[in-house]
Amino acid sequence: MSVNKEVRRITTNTLQEMKHRGEKISMLTSYDFSMARLVDGAGIDAILVGDSASNVMAGHETTLPITLDQMIYHAQGVVRAAKRCLVVVDLPFGSYQGNSKEALQSTIRIMKEAGAHAVKLEGGREVVESVVRILTAGVPVMGHLGLTPQSIYKFGTYSVRAREEQEAERLLEDALALQEAGCFGLVLEKIPSKLAQKVASTLSIPVIGIGAGSGVDGQVLVMHDMLGLNSEFSPRFLRRYLQLDGLVTEAVQAYIRDVRSGDFPSPAEQY
User: Fold this and answer.
1) Of 110, 124, 122, 118, nearest to 138 (Cα)?
2) β strands within 59-174, DSSP E
3) How wide is the angle at C-alpha 26 spanned by C-alphas 141 and 188, nearest 5°?
4) Average pLDDT for residues 225-240, to the nearest whole number?
5) Catalytic pick from 102, 122, 173, 189?
6) E strand residue ranges, 16-166
7) Which residues contact 125 (CB under 8 A, 6 or more apart)?
8) How many other CB atoms are found less than 10 A from the CB of residue 232?
9) pLDDT in tens, 198-214
10) Residue among 15, 32, 7, 192 nearest 120 (CA)
11) Do the bridges between strand 46-49 and strand 218-221 make them parallel or antiparallel, or are there none, so unpaired?
12) DSSP 3-state assignment of 46?
């Protein structure tokens, strides 16, 4: 008799329960089926299909060029791979700003065409109308404050945000507004750790940090960065768990040598 072990799917409610228990939430980005299958199988709590795909997958300088169609393409593969973790998909630049109806339409496409579990958008009180409209369709929404890469030309730099008291107060007010609007969680990027801890302790929803210190409810990193596939990018908050760029280079060079020498394929590797 075969026994099928049911895999319990992680949901937004699971993350909420983890916060209540004081259990840290782990999140990584993924952009394709093969890597997402490994990340999910390793036991990650949530995968973010980030618009950072614009940088690490397409080679753009910013996240702005990636389109909704491209985000859906990346999300489709990730969702097919993920058997357990929550999959959150970024709404890309130009698909929700200033137009809550467009925000809802973009979200519906992501949910229908990719099968995502939730969406994430950047901004504070200026996107509350979009958050509320998306929630009317029953789609969970995650917020994103601090350094918001889609606004890079407004900031002019990738430096730490909310160092000044006025901006810090505004960030906390925005966080409360997003929670009040119904967001199930919040990402805080590159802000002082004391401020991030204050936000996390003030909010009842999970707060996940990237460059926001250890006082939040969880952490998220770009997978390519933590695996060492992008050595040019070395911010203070990044911990590399592998240095894959060197390993990949060595493997490719070994393959080239074997092909040129005739060592590959060997008799055992032929039909």
Assistant:
1) 118
2) 86-90, 118-120, 141-146
3) 55
4) 92
5) 189
6) 25-29, 46-49, 86-90, 118-120, 141-146
7) 173, 174, 177
8) 5
9) 999 999 999 999 999 99
10) 15
11) unpaired
12) strand
Identity of residue 169: E
Q: Bridge partners of 236? A: none
**Per-residue pLDDT band at 157 (split at 50, 70, 90):** confident
* 64 neighbors 54 (Cβ within 8 angstroms): yes
Write the DSSP symbol of residue 111: I
Measured distance CA(115)–CA(78) in Å, rounded: 10
Amino acid at 243: Q
Residues 187, 200, 147, 227, CA torsion sign: negative
Quote the tokens at residue 156.
């002019």
12 within 8 A of 45, measured Cβ to Cβ: no
Alpha-carbon dihedral angle through residues 83, 122, 107, 185, given to the nearest 10 degrees:
50
Task: Read off the pLDDT of residues 173-188 as tens digits, 9 standing for 90 and up.
Answer: 999 999 999 999 999 9
User: Nearest Cα to 146, choosing from 168, 124, 167, 161?
Assistant: 161
Q: pTM value? A: 0.95
For residue 161, what is the enclosing H or E element? none
Contact assessment for residue 100 and residue 133, using Cβ atoms and an 8 Å cutoff: yes
Q: Which residues contact 194 (CB under 8 A, 6 or more apart)?
A: 213, 215
122 is catalytic: no
Distance CA 231, CA 177 (A): 37
Stretch (H or E) spanning 36: helix 33-41
List beta partners, residue 142.
120, 185
* Class of 12-240 in CATH: alpha beta
- Look at residue 6 and tell me whether its pLDDT is greater than 70: no
pLDDT, tens only, 250-270: 999 999 999 999 999 999 999
